[in-house]
Amino acid sequence: MTSLLDRLGVTIPVLQAPMAGVSTPALAAAVSNAGALGGVAVGATDAAGARTMIAAVRAATARSFNVNVFVHGAPRPDAARDAAWIAALAPTFRAYGVEPPAALRTIYRSFADDDAMLAALVELAPPVISFHFGVPAPARVRALRATGAVLLASATSLAEARAAERAGMDAVIAQGYEAGGHRGVFDPAAPDERLGTLALTRLLVRRLSVPVIAAGGIMDGAGVAAVLRLGAVAAQLGTAFVACPESSASPAYRSALLAGDAVHTAMTTGISGRPARCLVNRFTTLAEAVGARTPAVMPPDYPIAYDAGKALHAAAAARGEHGYGAQWAGQGAALARALPAAELVATLERERRAAERGDSVAPR
């Protein structure tokens, strides 16, 4: 029986998380060319944007790569809620010399109802397709499976993982609470068990019949070795790749990430409307202050709230303040290294092998 790693086309059990706004075709190709699995995220673009990104990856590598889409529930427009959120952010907008948006938009669609994106993926047939925030309807899964793609889905709990397994996923990505970026919960209004990567990985390995890929807080080869010992077939790392020169992270984002032991993260819904782990910055502090001051005021549904978040970041950045960006990062952020992607992959593999031999591993 062909192993999942063989089907993914990798020789190194590492996946680079497909991070919307940060991972680029150049990053994905460099990771794949180094023997791991690179990835691009097309959830925040349209079908035309996805076609461009996939073509760019294919132009730079002949190896396998992952294309990720968002399968979030459709946002519920609520003019009163939107207005209250805009009013709560208005003083900060004005502090940077601009008026807040008069209204908020749904800035991108869910794959669940984006027929043009489905058609693009069926036509272009990327070798691996992954889903975040849920799994598509059965007809969409069948259409993608018919292309020969390996299908992956993130899960934050056993219930979500079992839903992914029933939906026909080839493997489940166990996203622990430590992970940076958007939490992959299927229903953000439901209670969150907040399981850590180690506990969730072991639980899913024991209870699922499909392979498990561990994600969340893993920054070096010793972390990769640890989750492999728990039964995962591979590890997915996101924050570890943000500081690579091939990523599109801004200079301010890179600087904040590489600040050393002073790096701290927080889970917030204030930036986008969904829980996401971010470097503690002006936006996370603002969102916390708004919640404390007016607890009845809640961010609009994702991704409507993100429209306000992006506008505030743009207003502040125009005045030289970059602390309102979506600086997504996991709890292992203080271990980030600014290495070219291929060098980072080789380093991770060298550290993993050392850890498996029992050697002392001190990441550089």
Describe the fold and architecture.
This protein is of the alpha/beta class and about 375 residues long. It has two domains: about 240 residues, Aldolase class I (TIM Barrel); about 100 residues, no CATH class. The protein is about 40% helix and about 15% strand. The chain contains 14 helices and eleven strands. Strand 10 and strand 11 form a beta hairpin. Helix 2 runs parallel beside helix 3 and helix 3 packs parallel to helix 5. The protein is globular, with a radius of gyration of 20 Å. The mean pLDDT is about 95.
What is shown here, in short?
With 364 residues, the protein is of the alpha/beta class. The chain has 14 helices and eleven strands.
Note the main attributes of this structure.
364 residues; alpha/beta; TIM Barrel; 2 domains; 8-stranded parallel beta sheet; 3-stranded antiparallel beta sheet; 40% helix; globular
